[in-house]
Amino acid sequence: MNFLEPYNIKIEKTELLDLALTHSSYSNEHGGGNYERLEFLGDAVLQLITSEYFYNSSSAQEGELSKIRASFVCEEALAQYSKDVGIDKYIKVGNGQIKNVNDTIIADCFESVLGAIYLDKGFAVARSYALEILEPYVKKHHIFLGDYKSRLQEMVQTDKKSLEYILVSEDGPSHDKTFAFEVVIDGIVYGKGIGKSKKEAEQEAARDALNKSVK
After folding, report:
1. Each residue of 168-212: pLDDT tens digit?
2. How far apart, in whole angstroms, are the C-alpha atoms of residue 94 and residue 164?
3. Which residues are marked as active site?
4. What number of CA atoms fall less than 13 Å from residue 30's CA on the CB side?
5. How many Cβ atoms sit within 10 Å of the Cβ of residue 160?
6. Which of 51, 94, 102, 106 has a Cα at 20 to 30 A from 75?
C-alpha cells in the first residue's frame, strides 16, 4: 500500500492504515474492526481543515462559507479525492460487497485514511495532505454535486443571458435509451451531456458548462 508515498507520508502504525481500508462487510466475514471510527475522526479533521482554509481564503460570510465548504467535502468530492490518491484500489470488502464498492464507500475511506494520518502524523501533516488534494479543485472552481441546472440558471440570470437545452440525439430501444443534450447560452454551445434520461443528460450538460467556468 504505497499510495501515500507521493505525499511523503509513511504510516508507522500500519494497523491503522489497514483498519482505515476495511469495510464492515469484510470485518463481518473475517472478524476484526472496520473503518467507521476512523471515518468519524477523519470527517471532523477534514471539517476543521476546510473551515480554516475557506475562512482564510475567502471574505464570504458564514452561510456562504458553509455552502462553499459543503461543495468540496460532499460525497462526490471525497470519492474523487480518494480515486486521485488511489485509495479505492486497496479497500477491503466482503464477498457480498465486491461488485458494489460504490462512491459512498470510496468517499468514506478518504476520511478514514485522513483519520489514520492524523493519529499517526498529527494535524499539520494531515492538513498538508488534504489541501494538496483538495486545493487544485478549488482553484479550478470545480463543481461537485448538486442541481447543476439551477446553478447555471442563477449564473446566467445575473448577466441576463438566454439559456436553453437542446436534444442532440436519442439512441437505443425504448426500455434503454441514451439521450445527449447541449446547453446553449446566447446561441453558443457551452456544455454537452449524456444520460439515461433527459433530466440526467441536461444536468450533465449544465455541469460541463459550469466546470468550464461560464461567466
Report:
1. 999 988 878 899 999 999 899 999 999 888 888 898 899 888 877
2. 46
3. 43, 111
4. 15
5. 7
6. 94
